[in-house]
Specification:
Elements (H helix, E strand, L loop, with lengths): L2 H12 L3 H15 L2 H4 L6 H12 L1 H19 L3 H28 L6 H16 L1 H9 L45 H95 L1
Helix pairs in contact: 2-9, 4-5, 4-6, 4-7, 5-6, 5-7, 6-7, 7-8
Length: 280
C-alpha cells in the first residue's frame, strides 16, 4: 500500500466506535497484507473521545485551537493583560468542550468517567499550550491523551498513530445519522476474547509478582522469627543464670549480716568491759 494511502485509512479506522477498531484494523491489515496497518495502536478511551470530538464537534475544536494559538502569541509577546484574559477564556472553554465531549460519547453509548474526562481536559489544555499538541489533536489520530506544562515541548509524535499524522486533519463527520457497517461478529468476538485474554495474562503476571513478593516477605520473617527465638532462649538462659547467682549472693549476704551482728555484739561487750575497768 502506498504511503499516501495510510493516513486516509487511519482516518477511517480511528473514526470507528472504540470496540470496532481492533477487528476492523486486523481485517484491513489482512486484506492489504500491510504490517503498518496491523501496527496501528488502539486508542485509549480518552484519546478516542478527543478523536470523536474532533470529527463531530469540529467547530468547537477549531475554536479551542484558535484560542491556544492566540494564547501562545500573547505569551511570546509578553502581553500580560491579554494573557490573563486568554487564560481565563482557556479554562472556561476547556471545561465547556470537555462537557460536550462527554455528551457526544454518551450519545454513542460510552460513559466517560471523571478520570477520563480529566484526561480529555488535559489534552485540550495541551493543545492550547503547545503547537505540536494542537497538531496531534487536530489529526484525530490520537492513541494516548496529552499533557503539557507550558514549559517543555510535548512529544506529540508519540501520541499519534503515525508521526505523519501531525500534518493531517481529520475529516469532519456530518451531523446526519450515518450507518457504519459493523465488524464481522465472529471477528469482533475473537478480538474481544483476545483482548480479555491479554488483560487476564497481565493480571496473572501482576498477581504472580505480588505472590512472589509476599512469599519472600514471609520467608524473611520466618528467618527473623527463628533468630529472635534463639536470642530469646539465650536471654532466658542468662536470666536463669543470673537468678541462680542472685540466690547465691542473697545467701552470702545473709551470712555476712549474721557475722556482722555477732561482731557487733562482741564489740559492745568489749566496749562495756573497757568502760567498767576505766571507771574503777
Amino acid at each position: 500500500m502506498p504511503d499516501d494511502d495510510l493516513l486516509p485509512l487511519a482516518d477511517e479506522l480511528y473514526a470507528l466506535p472504540l470496540a470496532a477498531f481492533t477487528p476492523a484494523r486486523d481485517r484491513r491489515a489482512k486484506e492489504l497484507k500491510d504490517q503498518r496497518v496491523k501496527a496501528l495502536r488502539k486508542p485509549t478511551l480518552a484519546a478516542w473521545v478527543v478523536n470523536l470530538l474532533v470529527r463531530h464537534e469540529t467547530e468547537q475544536v477549531d475554536q479551542v485551537l484558535a484560542v491556544g494559538e492566540a494564547l501562545r502569541e500573547a505569551a511570546a509577546g509578553m502581553d500580560a493583560a491579554q494573557l490573563r484574559e486568554l487564560t481565563k477564556q482557556r479554562r472556561q472553554l476547556t471545561a465547556a468542550v470537555t462537557t460536550r465531549a462527554r455528551a457526544v460519547a454518551r450519545e454513542r453509548g460510552v460513559k466517560v468517567t471523571d478520570a477520563v474526562a480529566d484526561q480529555v481536559g488535559a489534552t485540550l489544555t495541551a493543545a492550547m499550550l503547545d503547537a505540536g499538541a494542537a497538531a496531534a489533536v487536530r489529526s484525530g489520530l490520537l492513541v494516548t491523551p496529552l499533557a503539557a506544562t507550558g514549559v517543555e515541548a510535548v512529544d506529540a509524535a508519540a501520541a499519534v498513530a503515525v508521526p505523519e499524522a501531525l500534518g493531517f486533519a481529520a475529516a469532519p463527520v456530518s451531523r446526519e445519522l450515518r450507518v457504519v457497517p459493523g465488524p464481522d461478529p465472529a471477528e469482533a468476538e475473537r478480538a474481544r476474547r483476545e483482548e480479555a485474554l491479554q488483560e487476564a495474562r497481565v493480571a496473572l503476571q501482576g498477581a504472580r509478582h505480588e505472590h512472589e513478593e509476599a512469599e519472600a516477605h514471609v520467608k524473611a520473617l520466618e528467618a527473623r522469627s527463628l533468630q529472635v527465638a534463639a536470642e530469646l532462649e539465650e536471654a532466658r538462659r542468662r536470666v536463669a543464670g543470673l537468678e541462680e547467682r542472685a540466690e547465691e549472693v542473697d545467701d552470702e549476704l545473709t551470712e555476712a549480716e549474721d557475722g556482722r551482728d555477732a561482731a557487733a555484739e562482741q564489740l559492745a561487750t568489749a566496749q562495756a568491759e573497757v568502760d567498767r575497768l576505766s571507771s574503777g
